[in-house]
Specification:
The structure is a single chain. By secondary structure, the protein is α+β, with helices and mostly antiparallel strands. The protein has three domains: 259 residues, Alkaline Phosphatase, subunit A (3-Layer(aba) Sandwich), CATH 3.40.720.10; 95 residues, 2-Layer Sandwich (Gyrase A, domain 2); 302 residues, Extracellular Endonuclease, Chain A (3-Layer(aba) Sandwich). The protein is 23% helix and 19% strand. It has a seven-stranded antiparallel beta sheet. A hairpin with a 6-residue loop joins strand 10 and strand 11. Helix 5 packs parallel to helix 7 and helix 6 packs antiparallel against helix 7. Keywords: Glycoprotein, Hydrolase.
Length: 706
């Protein structure tokens, strides 16, 4: 049902859907993918792929390789070259079953050289009743001809929402109309004695928000638009160099973003390579222009002041906005009865549909088993791959001679004004029993597993545990548990940093390597989280250091760490994992440090890069025990998580508060895993781990702000 916003169901004018909701399985809402457009999300539902992955990045788009424009009403929309991935009907047909579709976007296109066994070219004039009746007739076919998958599409209430707005009588009228079609379907199943044989899933592609010509930002008021190409006006604006621009015009995406940032409070510009929140998954496709502008809910962005299509309703906004939430209800023998589940993203549907049909899904962006809790008899979840064991040896020196040799080789450039600083190194000389005790404290949900290299070692201290990578010459993750007695950030000891004697000489970056750079030495475990000297000295070592822009460290990083400390006080403690991310090709996956596009910290005296790679982002995951229980696996009945992927920029936009910036950059733990090559929650039951990994908190429901 196109444009059926989730809360339309609460208007109590859709009795058949209401009955399905009461007696079936439903979610308060289903999260659409960005941009919350029709073709993008319909195709995501049947492929399990983000729009950037399947290629339908908007209802209107230009492909510079094809030198062609895709419009949903044009012949190009039926050209298979635009459609990536494997739609569900192809998955079904390839594995010996039959599929039938009635007007689903893409189903009349020979994607992969295939079409469903039964399909129709789109014709919006066909009555809804005919579509339902055809579906019922397909179910009456002999078993050898009967489709196992039937899909149909209604263009309402979307059309009424666009014209009259989501709060209009016209929308209510269409809600009642499509509800009657559900009644027609269910009555037809009952008449054929199929009610207990057929699973019915009702979904929407996106929601709808009210718009007005009084709430429009005009690009021509903000910049010279003559050399700029803008595919469309509305809720999503993408900018690039126009092919009509004079040869002398130099296209500078970073400069455009800089000039547009904070000139108006109702939109925010980003380059797709940097800054655009990772949770949007809207960068890795050539059809996405260089600059992407997100727009405030209920506002529109237009190229020219002559734009007039602004009163009524729209969609396409940030998928975190509640007005963009979509309907999900399921009823049938495979689903639980009378159950409400947590909201989830529509990329998870394809795997569930495949499991219901008994077919093997094609590779996709969803997570197998993430919707198993909706099903009475779910299929087994594929086992997780094991991480790679460490091949590095990192231990406290056996003798004073070894200790002094390591210091002699690695301390140049480091200094510490704390008397007898060497004595604090003894805090790293732990017994096996102490290592086990501290790891149990700081890794309550399991040690993050490294899936791409064995070139690391796990270093344990009383206040934190870290995984140090020779590959990156820095820690790749640091984990720690803060209890409710945490007091917040204290003053950090200045002018005191030393090598970590547990690391072989030359593994970690040296203090001197940072001397001629513009970067600060940041800490994954902030020394300022410790109020006493011993705790701070434990953190003031190079194995805890990552390169950070000064503004990033002193700004959003310290703000986030202060917030984490306050959460520890509120929630009886929290478990934290932080680390660097490298994604210079902006594909949402971990970069290889040897890739040509990787950037490294630069020596300002020579202008040459040094061996330390420069992170594009930093992640922070914070897990707590629901209901106020202590952070411990044996005492925690249910975990909750919030995570962030923070762009590694020297500052945040001046028109955004740190809270707004954090809320914009919430992320799933699954996204952190993809961007780091790590896996989390290995000691939790697999269903709990999947729930945490695929959870994306809503900005408005973020944990309490201190």
């Amino acid at each position: 049902m196109d444009g059926f916003r989730a809360d339309y169901l609460l208007r109590n004018i859709t009795p058949y859907l209401g009955k399905m909701r009461r007696y079936g399985t439903h979610a308060p809402y289903m999260r659409a993918q960005y941009p919350t457009k029709t073709f993008t999300n319909h195709y995501t539902i049947v492929t399990g792929l983000y729009p950037e992955s399947h290629g339908i990045i908007d209802n209107l788009m230009y492909d510079e390789v094809f030198r062609a424009t895709f419009r949903i009403s044009s012949s190009e929309a039926r050209n298979a070259r635009w459609w990536g991935g494997e739609p569900l009907w192809n998955t079904v047909e390839q594995q010996g079953l039959k599929a039938a579709t009635y007007f689903w976007p893409g189903s009349d296109v020979d994607i992969q050289g295939m079409l469903p066994s039964y399909y129709y070219q789109y014709d919006g004039s066909v009555p809804y009743e005919d579509r339902i009746d055809q579906a019922l007739q397909w179910l009456e076919l002999p078993q050898s001809e009967r489709p196992s998958l039937l899909i149909t599409y209604f263009d309402q209430p979307d059309l009424a929402g666009h014209i009259e707005g989501p709060d209009s009588d016209a929308v209510n009228k269409e809600l009642m109309r499509v509800d009657k079609m559900i009644g027609r379907l269910m009555d037809g199943l009952h008449a054929r004695n199929l009610s207990d044989c057929v699973n019915v899933v009702v979904v929407a592609d996106h929601g709808m928000t009210p718009t007005s010509c009084d709430r429009v930002v005009y690009l021509e008021d903000l910049m010279d638009i003559s050399p700029i190409y803008v595919p469309r006006d509305g809720t999503l604006m993408r900018l690039t160099r126009s092919f009509r621009a004079p040869e002398s015009y130099v296209w500078d995406p970073d400069g455009v973003v800089k000039n547009l940032t904070c000139v108006d409070d109702h939109f925010m510009p980003y380059t797709k390579q940097a800054g655009l929140p990772k949770r949007l998954h809207y960068a890795n496709n050539r059809r996405i222009e260089d600059v992407v502008c997100t727009v405030e809910d209920e506002w529109l962005f237009a190229r020219l002041r002559s734009f007039s299509n602004c009163d009524g309703g729209e969609h396409g906004y940030d998928n975190e906005f509640r007005n963009m939430s979509a309907l999900f209800i399921a009823y049938g023998p495979a689903f639980h009865q009378g159950v409400e589940v947590e909201p989830f993203g529509n990329i998870e549907l394809y795997n569930m549909f495949s499991d219901l049909l008994g077919v093997t899904p094609a590779p996709n962006n969803g997570t197998r088993g993430s919707l198993n809790h909706l099903l009475r008899q779910p299929r087994p979840i594929p086992p997780q791959e094991d991480g790679l064991d460490s091949t590095m040896t990192c231990s406290f020196p056996d003798t004073d001679s070894d200790y002094n040799s390591i210091l002699a080789a690695t301390m140049p450039g480091c200094s510490c004004n704390v008397a007898q600083w060497r004595t604090y190194d003894q805090n790293f000389n732990l017994t096996n029993s102490e290592v086990s005790q501290y790891q149990q404290l700081h890794l309550p949900t399991g040690t993050p597993q490294n899936m791409y290299t064995s070139d690391y070692c796990v270093l344990t201290a009383s206040n934190y545990v870290t995984s140090f990578s020779q590959h990156y010459a820095m820690p790749t993750w640091t984990a720690y548990t803060l209890d409710q007695t945490t007091q917040g950030l204290s003053s950090e000891i200045a002018d005191c940093l030393r090598t970590d004697v547990r690391l072989p000489a030359g593994q970690a970056a040296s203090c001197s390597e940072y001397e001629n750079t513009t970067l600060s030495m940041g800490f994954l475990y902030p020394p300022s989280l410790s109020a006493d000297l011993t705790g701070q000295m434990e953190a003031l070592v190079m194995s805890n250091v990552v390169p950070q822009h000064r503004g990033f460290k002193e700004g959003i990083w310290n703000f986030t760490m202060s917030l984490v400390a306050s959460w520890a006080q509120m929630y009886q403690g929290v478990h934290v994992v932080t680390g660097p991310i490298f994604d210079y090709n902006f594909d949402g996956l971990r970069d290889n440090v040897t890739a040509q596009y990787m950037r490294f910290v630069e020596d300002t005296t020579t202008g040459m890069p040094i061996r330390i790679p420069l992170p594009t982002h930093f992640f922070v995951t914070v897990t707590r025990c629901d209901g106020g229980s202590l952070v411990s696996t044996d005492r925690c009945p249910r975990w909750q998580v919030v995570s962030f992927i923070l762009p590694h920029a020297d500052s945040i936009p001046t028109c955004m508060t740190p809270r707004e910036y954090l809320s914009m950059n919430v992320a799933r733990v699954k996204d952190v895993e993809l961007l780091t090559g790590l896996t989390f929650y290995r000691d939790l039951p697999v269903t709990d781990a999947i729930r945490l990994k695929t959870h994306l908190p809503e900005a408005q429901d973020l944990w309490a702000w201190a």
